[in-house]
Amino acid sequence: MLKTTTVVVGAGHSGLAMSRCLADRSIDHVILERGEVAHSWRTQRWDSLRLLTPNWMTRLPGYAYRGEDPAGYLAATDVVELIADYAKETAAPVRANTTVTSVRQTERGYVVQTDQDCWQARSVVLAAGASTVAKVPGLQAGVPAGLTTLTPAVYRNPDELPDGGVLVVGASASGIQIAEELHRSGRPVTLAVGEHVRMPRTYRGEDILWWMDAAGLLAERYDQIPDLGRARNLPSMQLVGSPDRRTLDLNSLSGLGVRLVGRLAGIQDGIAQFSGSLANTFALADLKLGRLLGTIDAWATRAGLDSESPQRFAPTTVPAATPLTLDLRSGEIRTILWATGFRPDLSWLDVGVFDRRGDIRHDGGVTTSEGLYLMGMPFLRRRNSSFIDGAGADAADLSDHLNHYLHST
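The chain above was modelled as a monomer; its predicted structure follows.
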């Protein structure tokens, strides 16, 4: 059995940020990665995808974007290159193509079994990613035979799909981007819209994330949020990282000809059933956007940044006719794309830290099992925890806690 002080599971940006912080504290460790560095970015991203965060926000411990387009947005292939370069520059001790098959607790810490070897460690950091497995609702069982179904994890481009209409389920970042791309390819697209976070790409002359970063909104801590459970389960922001910094929202999609319907509530006898509360869904998203912009305006006034006038955006337009049902057997829809989110895959974790919903019990990444830590989850310690830019601060906090744990036991 091999021995080390800490095993980090996952060589994405979160695992590598933790590795750098552990190295800074002279903590011996190894990173176990099922594929290559940045595996998910290599294998689970569609061709046209770009980061939602501007390049200047691509920051990791001791490293930052060095290109000539700080206001741009990295393509998926560029993200792979950046993360791989970071791993090389930090000399991260990555063991690639090594799949963890179990982690169990012992009196001396943890035993980590892989398909290659076995490790004994006093502590383990789970950084395998929050977006490992697509969350597809159980109602998919009602989809008639003959329809193509897929998720953003396997979608690559419109050419891979059959001709004909597409039903995109989910209107967060992935759903709206893919819906637009499919529509521009000439396919009729229906977008089923549930709860979403409306967001303009730019506001008062700057990227919206510049304002959120400058105003301290992205650094809000998990222990300062009244409803943390809800905050951790919010859909991703409706943003697209296009070179022209354009806003892609439901109004623009509707203007292009994408048909908007309510949340997909069920499929019975081949008939898709949609919620009739689309107007309320739109109104709630518009209200939250207004509150966010008001918070930014108040901060801009306090900071003396009132050279640009406050902006407000037109309400989301409710279509004149919104169908409540759609016959999936008619041939109108040939493909269903489930843009309904992702979840981590921790089926190999044999430690009693899961709640009854299957989520890990933790306090800001410190799990209920001593020496076991979690990285990369939404709002883990801060609002930007799931961004590349948020990994460094979380890793610094958790590596401090881990270091104290090692010296106190």
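Residues 50 and 76 are 6 Å apart (CA to CA).
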